[in-house]
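Quick check before the chapter quiz. The format below is the same one you will see on the exam, so make sure you can read both the input and the output lines.
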Amino acid sequence: MASLPPAPDGRLRGDHACRLGRCGCGGAQARGERVPDPIGAGGRHPAAVALVTASATAGDPLRVLQVGWGFHPWRVGGLILYAEDLMAALVERGHAVTYFFAGRHYPLRSRPRLRCWHRDGVDMRELVNPPIVAGLERGTRRPDLDVAEPWIEEQFAGALREVAPDVVHVQELHGLPSSLLDLAAKARVPVVMTLHDYGPLCATLRLFDADGRVCTRMRIGADCVTRNAGAPLDDRLLRRETVEFELRGIRGWLDRRGRSLDERLVEWALRRAGVSDEQIEAMEASLPRPEPGLEDAFQRRRDVNVERLGRVDRLIAQSPRIAEIYRSLGVSGERMSVMPAFAKHIERLRPRRLDIAPTLPTFITLGGCASRTKGSRVVAEALEALRAAGAEGRFRLRVLGHVDPAVEELLAGFERVELNGLYARDQLDAILEDGDVGLMPSVWEEALGYTGLEMLAKGIPLIANPLGGIGGYLREGETGWINESCTGRGLADLMLRVVDHPELVPDMHRRTLAAWPQISIPWTSHVDAVEGVYREVV
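Here is the expected output.
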């Protein structure tokens, strides 16, 4: 039976949506046939051998195997938008791009499987119901799987055989084992890896310890057990995300036909899938739950990954600070370079006009209250300090993005604080039109901080903590004000200065616009640089 192509948003119609001739198997998987191994006695397809194949010569198309987690809009955030923009740009330049990634988790079907589909010129190899539960900032209960996982390794080995890539570009290993790096090396395929966060070094991604500080320790086992105590017990949250994603597609289909989905049916489906609000809340109520005896496993995860990163052909750090941190924790800097990954959509943002001092200064934060590490407690403490100083109501604060449940009720209780919720990329330009000053309250060492760059592109100066990649574009007196203490009190003091002296805003706005051309990197130049790295390692 022939497979149907996926819908434009990536939803699949049919259990196996391999388009004939587009995923590297020639349609064999769709027909249920065994895929032959194209690797010869040399251990690797000869067309991918460095400096021999025609595709390795300057200007000729390359076969690029991208590796990551999820796809938009099932997953949101700057990292996936950047990765997909890069893949689209490579396709536009004539390269053959395949994306291998850990993806959706469906209820009622527990066995993992591979789905091949096609979108916007990219061959998608999605691991559905993969064995590794991607817990993001909450961490993991199986650090051993982050190092090695047989089923995923088997699927990746198949991708290497069938795609015969000239280069593998790892955007992230979330939901995937780091053993994939060794598999590529064994197949003699050069590997490029962009360091978007600290996932290889830290199971909770942020390099933030259980005491609420940036983690610089080398012996991490005991702290990791505590820090990962809030990790999901199973893939229930990912199943809920997947069900909601599919329901959005169904609702959209019905809306276009003037119909609606019976919400009683939705509630029944969520309960049947084990992901109703009540079932999710029951799991959350049982957390945090430390897993004793995992100290050695977490330490091994770090040690093995440090060693494996040292063998990668080229590591790309988002900022000098990120490179410094990785090196300080044992990763070899011999083949590490710095290349900020400016997202394509930033170029489409148009600077707003701000010629006069605002009568009611408007602060805005994009994701700055999403979690503790993103700065939710810093913002809450700042608002409490401003209330104590009698400044409540003299300014407006717009909070965009997810809000940390730990502070949501508190934030909503302040006068003129608006919790505006999630937003789409195409809404960003309009959203930022009434922002006077942007807040970047992160307390972790941000790899780059796309939201800060988005606000600067609009001419919105920042009040920010000088951590991680933020320090590369936060310049006192040029692009904003530095919160040296990285505390809520320090943020409140700087916000109060703006509230008391709103004439500072248009002046810093003009300075920000003047500084932006020296900070920004044209998207085409970035893609040129990435392509240049590919050709260097091939």
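If your answer matched, good. The first strand starts at residue 63 and ends at 69.
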